[in-house]
Amino acid sequence: LRRGLKASGRKRAMGDFASLRALPQPRRVAELAPEAQSFKAFRVRQTHDEVSRVTSMAFSPTEPYRLAVASGTKVGLWSKGKEEALENYATVRKFKDITQCASWRGDGKLLLAGEASGSCAVIEVLTRKPLRRFRGHGDAVSCCAFAATDRSKAATGGRDGKLRLWDVATGDLIHTVDAHSDCMKALSPAAGGPEAWITAGYDGRVKLWDLRVADKGATGACAISIDHGHPVEAGCTFPGCAMYISVGGPAVKVWDLAAGGRPVQEIAEAHSKAVTAVCLDSTASVLLTASFEGLAKVWHAASLEHLWTYKLPAPATCAAWRPDDKAFAVGLDNGRWILRERKFALKAEVPQAGAETQEPQQVVDDAEEKPKESWPSRQWAKREGYLRGQDHEAASDDEVVDLVHKKRRKEAQLDFFLRKFEYRKAIEFLVLHNLPPSEGLAVIEELLERGALRSALSNLGTELCRSLLQWMMKAFSSGDGLQERLLFEALHTILDGNSCLQPPSTPELQEIFKKLEDKVHQEMMMQEAIIETGGMLKAVMASEFLAKATTPR
């Protein structure tokens, strides 16, 4: 054992003293895929506290990607300001009741905002004033959206379960459909023109509507009806509007509307509580969900594979992904919203066509790097005579040799004891400062290499033996096989070299020995279980190999 430990020790030059280093710990293996690791770069960029619950958030589809936040009886408009942080450049307060939803038009010039009184305002972003209001819902307007192919059409959904189509230019009501038996929570334009819409609500249904046949009644206008299985809280469409994602309860489901509403993917327990928000990035490759349990999760949109989880300080109510895929925002039930932004490394600017090509320069944070002076500036001695040395200023034809002066590092106390061969004091220092197992076992390995472990651990006394055994109890089963061998070697040396432990002379030592015996017994049981499990795995693998070998090809 001693020969193996010495062979595994650190190599050093003969006669040189090497500072003590902690033993290496087992490397933690990364369990996440590289794609999942990229979401660690999304850091909290900004937080803001509103006066009440954040009910809706939406990013403008065009630059500079303004953020609309609906909270209380207002809608706040945020845009990039100094240092790339969002600044509240305008607040629309022309509401009589609590705002419920917000949605941008495709060109980013108009904004829809529904309120609890039953009206929906069309806000012009340039003037920050409502152009007109859609009135007709008997209850709160819970969702709204502009048509994707016709900017002059917009639709609203209310708590009364009705779907209404409006003319944005005149404010006239075009169609009214009894879409759901309960509150409508999600509304998205569908493929097929401004009369095609996808709705979902608290009745658990996801429906595709063709309002061109709405005059035949509500049942005639519904092309597809799907049962989500839970009250639907939110939903969004993939590009092309052929597929739809619905969230409600703890489930996340993907539907193929082009195939008549066929289920494509499903996660029955995506969250432990109700999922309240869902959104896709611009490439429809990543899906973000937020729930009332206070977590936001990122999923792979194609396979619904979990990629990352963000912990929120409060239950989530809404979420929105910025169109440039560099940030997303989450609104919370306590009135706070959080913006997480991805940090990218700075890249060298690409020269424009016709410009002179310059050598690439390093990006420096504060100022350009200055060459380090090997010698500090000094006042040269002004004396007469033939002076030489460091006090004499060099002439123009002199060759200056700069000596490299290494800064002397302060020696650690433990290294001082080992350099002075005071091994007993090193052991006392280990116990007194309760060193971590990696550093304490490094001391034991150093003493073992020097052949001084027995002399350092002999005749310690009752109190020092008790403290050292307590430290070993904490270090037990905390490292790999080499560290356990070091611990056992030190334990055997203490038992052989101290008369107070043969047998234990005090009740405290007897109690420590009892605990030590229990730990050894637990370790032996664990090793037996590992051996038994290994035998079972070998038998299973052997049977599988035999089955493959006997299967005819």
Relevant terms:
alpha+beta, four-stranded antiparallel β-sheet, 22% helix, 553 residues, 28 strands
Topology:
Elements: H1 2-7, H2 34-37, E1 42-49, E2 54-59, E3 67-71, E4 74-80, E5 86-92, E6 99-104, E7 110-115, E8 119-124, E9 129-135, E10 141-146, E11 153-158, E12 162-167, E13 173-178, E14 184-189, E15 196-201, E16 205-210, H3 218-221, E17 222-227, E18 234-237, E19 243-248, E20 251-256, E21 262-267, E22 275-280, E23 286-291, E24 295-300, E25 306-311, E26 316-321, E27 327-332, E28 336-342, H4 413-419, H5 423-432, H6 437-450, H7 453-456, H8 462-475, H9 481-497, H10 507-550
Description:
The chain has 553 residues and is α+β, with helices and mostly antiparallel strands. It has 10 helices and 28 strands. The strands form 7 sheets. The protein has a 4-stranded antiparallel β-sheet, with no helix packed on it. Strands 2-3-4-5 form a 4-stranded antiparallel β-sheet, with no helix packed on it. A 4-stranded antiparallel β-sheet has the order 6-7-8-9, with no helix packed on it. β6 and β7 (110-115) form a beta hairpin. α4 (413-419) runs antiparallel to α5 (423-432), α6 (437-450) packs across α9 (481-497) and α8 packs parallel to α10. It is elongated, with a radius of gyration of 36 Å. Residues 1-14 and 345-378 have low confidence and may be disordered.
